[in-house]
């Protein structure tokens, strides 16, 4: 999707790449995973923005999680004009946020089983995100330049973020295949991958000049349930949790005051199960996360870090 198409959703500031950034023939490769369900109102715009990237993906795998509207017909129409688009169709078992990560893994398994070309990166996209046409080129250029960046995303608003967003997230496959290979099918999987990167000497970045937009309100389907509950499964330090709550609540960003209250409520209310998606991560992982957060809190108190 061209940059001048964005204003129909909201005002964005799209920065053009300098000419020496635009030689995409020398950039490394990526594939895309897209999840959707009953997405007739936005899936075409989302996929067209991926199709129009200046740096083209090797292939795109869409997981349609049992749509009952016109989504399947729209996907078929797009497939007819885009031969690198593959669609996995699940039976309709109702909406369940737990299935998102399972669908990501289905896409990875599909690529392996069909012996698709191995790529340097993969991009996690959704049915409600639209990307500027140089989105992939901007991020992959920076990933190519710094092999220590394991995960990166662009930004969808003018706030400053430390952690890459879930949608629009590029992941370095050499890191991912070594440390995970598949996403952990457990609450907090997006954050867990970031902590794993730190644990293995990698870092992650948000590149604010790479722009995308959400066409659906954040938290609409889940009311930030997993934002709070996953901080329990990951073993977040209580001081870190309270600091995040007060920051989000008083700034009203990035999830709004109501979202901050939902987040804290679910953190306090949640009781992890003994196994499965709702269970705790292993003690070594939880200890690493808490130690990292405690050091960060100490540095903030000493004035060494000015943002959280």
Helical stretch count?
Answer: 10
Order of helices and strands: EHEHEHEEHEEHHEHHHH
Q: What fold name goes in the CATH topology slot of the largest domain? A: Spore Coat Polysaccharide Biosynthesis Protein SpsA, Chain A
Tell me the quaternary state.
single chain
Unreliable residue stretches = 9-22
Q: For the record, what CATH class of the largest domain applies?
A: Alpha Beta
Using only C-alpha atoms, the radius of gyration works out to: 19 Å
Average pLDDT for all residues: 89
- The CATH superfamily name of the largest domain is Spore Coat Polysaccharide Biosynthesis Protein SpsA, Chain A
The main sheet orders its strands as 3-2-1-4-7-6-8-5
Sum up the overall morphology in one term. globular
Give the % helix: 25-40%
Question: Overview of this structure, please?
Answer:
The protein is of the alpha/beta class. The chain folds into two domains: 212 residues, Spore Coat Polysaccharide Biosynthesis Protein SpsA, Chain A (Alpha-Beta Complex), CATH 3.90.550.10; 77 residues, no CATH class. Helices cover 39% and strands 16% of the residues. It contains ten helices and eight strands. An eight-stranded mixed β-sheet has the order 3-2-1-4-7-6-8-5, sandwiched between helices. Strand 2, helix 2 and strand 3 form a beta-alpha-beta unit. Helix 7 packs parallel to helix 9 and helix 8 runs antiparallel to helix 9. The longest helix is centred in the C-terminal third of the chain and has 19 residues. The chain starts with 29 loop residues before the first strand and ends in a 7-residue tail after the last helix.
């Amino acid at each position: 999707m061209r940059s001048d198409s964005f204003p129909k959703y909201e005002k964005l500031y799209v920065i053009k790449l300098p000419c020496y950034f635009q030689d995409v023939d020398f950039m490394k490769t990526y594939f895309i995973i897209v999840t959707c369900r009953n997405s007739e109102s936005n899936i075409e715009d989302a996929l067209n923005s991926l199709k129009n990237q200046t740096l083209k993906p090797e292939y795109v795998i869409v997981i349609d999680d049992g749509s009952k509207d016109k989504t399947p017909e729209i996907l078929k129409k797009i497939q007819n004009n885009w031969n690198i688009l593959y669609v996995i169709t699940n039976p309709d078992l109702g909406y369940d946020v737990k299935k998102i990560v399972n669908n990501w893994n289905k896409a990875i398994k599909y690529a392996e089983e069909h012996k698709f070309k191995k790529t340097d990166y993969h991009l996690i996209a959704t049915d409600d995100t639209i990307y500027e046409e140089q989105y992939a080129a901007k991020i992959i250029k920076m990933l190519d330049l710094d092999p220590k960046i394991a995960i990166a995303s662009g930004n969808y608003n003018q706030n400053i973020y430390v952690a890459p967003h879930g949608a629009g997230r590029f992941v370095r496959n050499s890191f991912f295949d070594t440390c995970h290979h598949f996403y952990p099918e457990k609450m907090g999987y997006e954050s867990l991958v970031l902590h794993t990167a730190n644990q293995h000497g990698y870092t992650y970045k948000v590149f604010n000049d790479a722009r995308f937009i959400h066409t659906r309100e954040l938290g609409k389907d889940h009311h930030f349930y997993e934002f709070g509950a996953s901080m329990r499964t990951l073993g977040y330090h209580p001081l870190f949790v309270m600091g995040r709550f007060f920051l989000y609540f008083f700034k009203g960003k990035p999830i709004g005051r109501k979202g901050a209250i939902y987040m804290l409520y679910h953190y306090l209310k949640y009781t992890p199960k003994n196994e499965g998606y709702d269970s705790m991560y292993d003690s070594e992982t939880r200890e690493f996360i808490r130690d990292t957060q405690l050091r960060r809190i100490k540095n903030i108190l000493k004035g060494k870090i000015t943002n959280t």
